Amino acid sequence: MTAESTLVPPLSPPPPSRSNGQSYRLVVPNSACAPRIARDFVGSLLHITDHPALADDARLCVTEVVTNSHRHTDSWQIQVDVTVRRREVTVYVEDNEPRALPVPGGSDAGDAEHEHGRGLLLVENLSVGWGMTIYGGCTPESKVVWFTLAEAETEAGTGAGAGADSAADGGAGA
């Protein structure tokens, strides 16, 4: 009982709502190509939706999370959902193996050979929030690992953030 409960982060917050913003979906087979396809999809999407400042971090984070699904589950497909908002983006990576939970950390800093768990530490450091959610109640069916990236605040009246805010407040924004 306690061995399984230690795999779940004690305070994993609920994922942000997917209904606020524009949503996009990619479903890929669970293959060695899945991380690259997801990385290219998310990177292209963020450039097209005027979030280029988030693209590199998003590409890195989605690669780590999709790679975890590929390596540690027998899920036949991996689903990547992206919700784009005015200043932030949330990426949800879903597979159908809710018992294969990711574990952040797990490696000693001095052990260069042991890299497992470092990807989630990267996700934690680059994102403003991340977590995992198991769906299906008493008989879990799937899990989602999600992360949110946010654009840095800009000085009033300067930068892309200020223009995006005024356009969105006027009803013309995303």
List the helices and strands and how they pair.
Blueprint: H1 2-5, E1 22-29, H2 34-48, H3 52-72, E2 77-84, E3 88-95, H4 118-126, E4 129-135, E5 142-150, H5 159-169
Antiparallel strand pairs: 1-2, 2-3, 3-5, 4-5
Helix pairs in contact: 2-3, 3-4
Walk me through this protein's architecture.
The chain is α+β, with helices and mostly antiparallel strands and 174 residues long. Helices cover 34% and strands 23% of the residues. It is built from five helices and five strands. Strands 1-2-3-5-4 form a five-stranded antiparallel beta sheet. α2 packs antiparallel against α3 and α3 packs antiparallel against α4. The longest helix is centred in the middle third of the chain and has 21 residues. The protein is globular, with a radius of gyration of 17 Å. The N terminus and C terminus are likely disordered.
Task: Please describe the structure with a list of short key phrases separated by commas or semicolons.
single chain, 174 residues, alpha+beta, five-stranded antiparallel beta sheet, 5 helices, 5 strands, 34% helix, 23% strand, globular, disordered N terminus, disordered C terminus
Coarse shape: globular
- Major beta sheet, strand line-up: 1-2-3-5-4
Determine the N-to-C terminus distance.
46 Å
Q: Sheet bearing the most strands, described?
A: 5 strands, antiparallel
CA radius of gyration: 17 Å
* Overall SS class: alpha+beta
Average pLDDT confidence is 79
Low-confidence stretches: 1-10, 107-114, 157-174
Helix content: 25-40%
- Percent strand equals 15-25%
